[in-house]
Structure formats: C-alpha cells, structure tokens
Amino acid sequence: MPRFTIKTYTAPYAVWTAIPAHVECQTVAICNGDTVLGLRYRTDSSDATTEGAQPLAPGAWLNLAAAHPSPTRFFPGTNIIYVQPSAAGTVTVEVHLLY
Q1: By the 8 A CB rule, do 37 and 76 touch?
Q2: Which domain holds residue 15?
Q3: Residue 20's CATH number
Q4: 22-56: per-residue pLDDT in tens?
Q5: CB-based contact 30:19 (threshold 8 Å)
Q6: Burial code of 42-79, b = ≥16 C-beta within 10 A, e = fewer?
Q7: Which residues contact 10 (CB under 8 A, 6 or more apart)?
Q8: Which end of the chain has the least Cβ crowding within 10 Å, N or C?
Q9: What is the rounded average pLDDT of the residues 50-71?
C-alpha cells in the first residue's frame, strides 16, 4: 500500500465536487491549483453551515489531520471534503494523502 499519494481533480463552478480518500490515510493536504480563483470548501455539500469562512486563496493549501488518537481517520471511498470555485470558472485541485 502506498504511504503517500497525489491525485488531481477538476472542480467546475456551481457544483460541489467531492474529494474522496482513495487510500486509507491520516493526513490530507488540499491545494488550490488556480492562479486567480479562490476555492470554497465544506464538509457537507448540502449544508452551507459546514463551509469554511474564507475561500482558499489561489495557490494556498488546506491541511486536514486526524485529531483523534485513532491510527486512521479517512478510509478509501470516504468523501473528505467538497470543493467549488468561488467564481465562474474551473479550478484544479491537487490532493496529497499521507498514511
């Protein structure tokens, strides 16, 4: 099993794109790969109260780590977070998962 993997996703405007764990992992880093658009993010695509207060700036990273003593936090197939550009356009999202 890989200990570190990278995946790239394309997030179109007006659609919440699910970012799933494709391996069992404890730490996730998400990069807004765009140079202009911000990246909105939330933990529940249908609940605006789970959205981050500020969009992730172009080129910025969002790091998520297990806050529980369990050895794993995200299992394969689990949707970790949902993302969407902050304005019309498409954003490339780079996701790093570390076991």
Answers
A1: no
A2: 4-98
A3: 2.60.120
A4: 888 888 999 999 999 999 999 999 999 999 999 99
A5: yes
A6: beebeeeeebeeebbebeeebebeeeeeeeebbeeeee
A7: 17, 90, 91, 92, 93
A8: N
A9: 87
